[in-house]
């Protein structure tokens, strides 16, 4: 943390005897102030802390400076634990504690600090009701702090219904005119702690303890509910170590736990991104597979269509061939029948002519002197296609030829004699 001079303002009025904070408001306030002092002094060795009691005994009964800003931790802790109950409930129309006057005293103390470097801050504890003071006095005090470059953190313990609106006016005025703008950085904070909750459990997670600037709406009014579970939740945030007993070890454990949590978040994010990429790759593969399947279906359908077309064409050609074949066969059969009929007639004439020629040739040859052999002639005529040797016409022709042959043979024999 940067160098800082801090004044802690404690409420030590009679209202702080109330037991709604364990064990009492005053002791719970003292524990929370002790934790803040340790955090301020240990975060930066040059930081200084002072203590003011807002009620005192004596004629003034006003704010009392217990310790000026110092780096002596012993003096600071001694002042914190030695604050007595002082002041009346309400005196002369004034509240038990005068917030505006106490803030003015703290501002003067910071102005006279030894180390002028670093920021100036006031930590204000309020546990008494603020019924008499007007809101404009808080606004005026806040503007004065803003003018002097002094930051203020307010911790409200009890009487929240009456005190919270006025204390918020103080904080908003100290933050400046941009305090109500969305996302505006706020260096002054208001933390409200409900009854029954340890203030240290709420403050340890608040911007007051962390020392960072909170955005608009970052006041820790709702943080108290988160810390309402008691010290168990707080110890869990620091690895089971009580930050009041060993702040350095608690902070080291907390930093280590936050780093481990950040690492796990990075690993989870990387794993989620990897899963997303795998899903995207699977989706692309599925899309490609679907496109391939559609292409194959189209090709198959085209092949099937082509096969169907070829089959139909083959059937048509086959039917045409069958029709042509049957037509050809019918034509051939008809032609054959006609030819056979013609050949039958022609063969008869040809056979007769052949027989006559042979008979005539036999007459001219010497070997036929004995006449034609009827068996030979019948065998010859039977070998001819379409010729019936038993045909009466053929038999008549053969008979005549035989008779003529015999007649010629007789005449030849008579001549020779």
TrEMBL record:
Q: Which InterPro entries match?
A: PSMD4 (IPR027040), PSMD4_RAZUL-like (IPR049590), UIM_dom (IPR003903), VWF_A (IPR002035), vWFA_dom_sf (IPR036465)
A GO molecular function term, named singly, is: polyubiquitin modification-dependent protein binding
One Gene Ontology cellular component annotation?
A: cytosol
PROSITE patterns cross-referenced by the UniProt entry? UIM, VWFA
| One Gene Ontology term from the biological process aspect of the record | proteasome-mediated ubiquitin-dependent protein catabolic process
- Keywords on this record? Proteasome, Repeat
Q: Where is the stretch described as Disordered?
A: 260-287, 382-417
The residue ranges of the VWFA domain are: 5-208
Family of the protein in this entry: Belongs to the proteasome subunit S5A family.
Matching PANTHER family: 26S PROTEASOME NON-ATPASE REGULATORY SUBUNIT 4
Q: What is this protein called?
A: 26S proteasome regulatory subunit RPN10
User: What species was this sequence derived from?
Assistant: Skeletonema marinoi
């Amino acid at each position: 943390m940067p160098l800082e001079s801090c004044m802690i303002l404690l409420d030590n009025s009679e209202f702080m005897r109330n037991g709604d904070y364990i064990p009492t408001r005053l002791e719970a306030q003292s524990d929370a102030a002790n934790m803040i002092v340790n955090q301020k002094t240990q975060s930066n060795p040059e930081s200084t802390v002072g203590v003011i009691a807002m009620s005192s005994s004596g004629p003034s009964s006003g704010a009392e400076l217990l310790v000026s800003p110092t780096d002596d931790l012993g003096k600071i802790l001694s002042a914190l634990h030695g604050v007595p109950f002082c002041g009346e409930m309400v005196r002369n129309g004034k509240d038990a504690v005068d917030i505006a006057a106490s803030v003015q005293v703290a501002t003067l103390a910071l102005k006279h600090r030894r180390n002028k470097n670093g920021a100036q801050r006031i930590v204000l504890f309020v546990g008494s009701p603020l019924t008499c003071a007007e809101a404009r006095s808080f606004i005026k005090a806040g503007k004065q702090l803003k003018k002097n470059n002094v930051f203020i953190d307010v911790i409200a313990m009890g009487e929240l219904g009456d005190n919270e609106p006025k204390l918020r006016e103080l904080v908003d005025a100290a933050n400046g005119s941009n305090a109500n703008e969305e996302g505006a950085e706020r260096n002054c904070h208001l933390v409200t702690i409900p009854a029954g909750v340890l203030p240290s459990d709420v403050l340890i997670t608040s911007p007051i303890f962390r020392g960072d600037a909170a955005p608009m709406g970052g006041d820790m009014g709702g943080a108290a509910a988160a810390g309402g579970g008691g010290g168990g939740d707080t110890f869990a945030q620091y690895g089971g170590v009580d930050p009041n007993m060993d702040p350095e070890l608690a902070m080291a454990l907390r930093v280590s736990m936050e780093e481990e949590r950040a690492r796990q978040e990075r690993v989870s994010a990387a794993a989620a991104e990897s899963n997303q990429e795998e899903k995207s790759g699977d989706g692309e593969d599925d899309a490609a597979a679907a496109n391939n399947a559609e292409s194959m279906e189209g090709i198959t359908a085209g092949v099937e269509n082509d096969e169907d077309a070829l089959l139909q064409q083959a059937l048509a050609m086959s039917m045409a061939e069958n029709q042509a074949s049957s037509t050809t066969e019918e034509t051939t059969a008809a032609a054959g029948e006609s030819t056979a009929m013609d050949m039958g007639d022609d063969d008869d004439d040809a056979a007769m002519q052949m027989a006559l020629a042979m008979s005539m040739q036999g007459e001219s040859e010497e070997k036929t002197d004995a006449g034609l052999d009827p068996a030979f002639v019948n065998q010859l005529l039977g070998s001819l296609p379409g010729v019936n040797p038993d045909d009466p016409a053929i038999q008549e022709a053969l008979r005549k030829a035989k008779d003529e042959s015999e007649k010629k043979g007789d005449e030849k024999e008579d001549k020779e004699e």
